[in-house]
Amino acid sequence: MRVLHTSDWHVGRKFHGRDLLAEQEAVLSGLADLVSDDRVDVLVVSGDLYDRAVPSAEAVAACTRVLLRVAEAGAKIVVTPGNHDSAPRLGAFGAFAAAGGLYLRTTIGELHKPVLLADDHGPVAFYGIPYLEPEPARHALGLPELRGHSGVLGEAMRRVRADLAARPEGTRSVVLSHAFVVGGEASESERTIAVGGVPYVPAKTFDGVDYAALGHLHGPQTLAEHLRYSGSPLAYSFSEARHRKSVWLVELDRGGLAGVERRELPVPRELGTLRGELAALLTEPVHDAETEKFLSVVLTDRVRPIDAMRRLQERFPHAVHLDWQPEGGRPDVRRYSDAVRGRSDEEIACCFVADTRNSDPTESERGLLREALAAVAGKEPE
Predict the structure, then answer these.
(1) Long-range CB contacts (< 8 A, 24+ apart) of 24-30?
(2) Do 298 and 272 touch, CB atoms closer than 8 A?
(3) Which residues fall within 8 angstroms of residue 201, CB to CB, at 6 or more apart?
(4) Residue 332 CA to chain centroid, in angstroms?
């Protein structure tokens, strides 16, 4: 049996305010081509199908089209929710969806009940473990004494192994889980799952199964031959600029895990970073290659440029993030009480302008500030 391990689709997510839905649908629709070309039997999504618990109608429609393409290419689909998903909403009509080959494993109380699919060598049990928030999960599992992510996920895997042990000899197993496993490397785009405790679980938690298809971390990673993160299909932060986005093609034979191969995904728009003074960035030909990338720009002008983002986007239409780090650094920031002590309102306002852009206000700007302060006070400007 061939399994395509994916996770963290985050359909509906924006990138620094830019809508990514078209890019997401283009990349994810390409999974159907992999299913067809590599004769994939089952595609799994290990959490965070959507970016929000209540996704937009457009995100739901795009995701539905992608899943339909994958199904039409010949694969069954197994999905479990992540920390961004609403498990009850994702699992709605799950019993009916299963009839069409879409298996939604969203219930904590049934995490030990696998989806059973078969190949020429017999059954393969797919166990979908929904994202387990420790506090509600320990009660849903009927064991309020459990503590933390390690406790609830350890109990979930104990139940999985118990069910697997009771099945016919030769039954192979795949576990879908959305968790932060020790040894994994985070990026800037994952939402933290640490709520009053340690978010990590040990890798040995997943011992005893043929393959653990992990989700949550957005970079593709191998923690052990049978324990991997597929990562997100698109980059969702500039910290992922060097990621090679991909999915894992997992092959199971009669004896269990036979091999895992990487399948790289297309990059709809590259990420880039630029640093320098605004005038140079807007004119130097060396930056021509950056015009079609999503850009994070750091300006080093001594004085903060006016209307910098608009001006940058005239040359770099996909510049989405801007920071200002003046060459030589900025003046030391004083405590508020020190900054205002013994100063008039006009002096405080002028000091604020200077701190904000690293240059004193001009005489005309000082005049505008005096007019504004006078208007607030109900007086005529001096």
Answers:
(1) 24/62, 24/233, 24/234, 25/62, 25/65, 25/66, 26/266, 26/268, 27/233, 27/234, 27/245, 27/265, 27/266, 27/268, 28/66, 28/233, 29/65, 29/66, 29/69, 30/265, 30/266
(2) no
(3) 149, 150, 153, 154, 179, 180, 181, 182
(4) 35
Query: For residue 240, what is the DSSP state?
Result: G
Q: pLDDT for 251-274, tens place per residue?
A: 999 999 999 999 999 999 999 999
Of 173, 193, 170, 196, the C-alpha closest to 181 is 193
Q: What's the pLDDT tens digit per position in 16-25?
A: 999 999 999 9
Q: Which CATH class is domain 2-264?
A: alpha beta
Is the sign of the CA dihedral 346, 350, 353, 355 positive or negative? negative
Q: Per DSSP, what are the bridge partners of residue 93?
A: none
Give me the residue spans of the domains in the chain. Answer: 2-264, 271-324, 336-377
Q: What is the pTM of this model?
A: 0.87
pLDDT at 317 over 70: yes
Strands 246-253 and 227-229 come out as unpaired
